[in-house]
Amino acid sequence: MTLQPTTCTAFEGLRRIASGARAEVALAVKQVIERGEQAPVLVFDDLTSQPVEFDLRGSDADVLARLAGEPSGSTASAEEAAESADQDAPRGRGRPRLGVVAREVTLLPRHWDWLNSQSGGASVVLRKLVEAARLAGDDKDRMRLAQEATYRFMTALAGNLPDYEEATRALFAADRARFQASMAQWPVDVREYAERLAAGAFGEG
């Protein structure tokens, strides 16, 4: 899996002050803090809602230079790296390597009978079944991660807002209509960001 470039969003109290690349948000936060605003400033990672902290010492150039030294948010998985290496490796004679690994599978006779009766044979059907199960698991993981990210943000910023507990229950019940209704009285910036984070919890995004 390849991660998306890291972006974040900053709030001054319940007001959103910046959203986008880390460098852009860091400078906006620096400006707010230097202005002497009293409301707390919190920055959230747009994917996980984990808090983001910036070293804002020195000039804008100093801040940007430090950020430029951070690791990139885009990385390749070990699986992708191995696949790439396999593609680049020289090929010998004979059948090309397809990345297929042969292992023993133990099934009951009726399972083998059903598999062998399917189009493409047992191996093709098994691969399709595994892939379908994997994708279903990915959907559940995306839903869980979206719920966790939204809850983390709501706990940090919306815990004292009206119907917070009802919104939380609706989030984990995957009830989008009730979730939105519970946030109706929230400041628009908080409500919109919570809805953005929660999209995956309702099978969107």
Short description:
This protein is mainly alpha-helical and about 200 residues long.
Mind explaining what this structure looks like?
It is a single chain. With 205 residues, the protein is mainly alpha-helical. The protein is built from eight helices and three strands; from the N terminus they run ββαβααααααα. A hairpin with a 2-residue loop joins β1 and β2.
Overall outline: elongated
Spatial separation of the terminal alpha carbons:
16 Å
Radius of gyration: 24 Å
The number of E-state strands comes to: 3
Helicity level, as a percent range? Answer: 40-55%
Please provide the ordered H/E string of secondary-structure elements.
Answer: EEHEHHHHHHH
Number of domains: 2
Strand order of the largest sheet: 2-1-3
In quaternary terms, these chains amount to: single chain
Give the biggest sheet.
3 strands, antiparallel
What is the SS-derived class?
mainly alpha
Percent of sequence in beta strands: 5-15%
- Summed over residues and divided by their number, the pLDDT gives a mean of 81
Number of helices: 8
Pfam families: DUF2239
Region (Disordered): 69-96
Protein name: DUF2239 family protein
InterPro entries: DUF2239
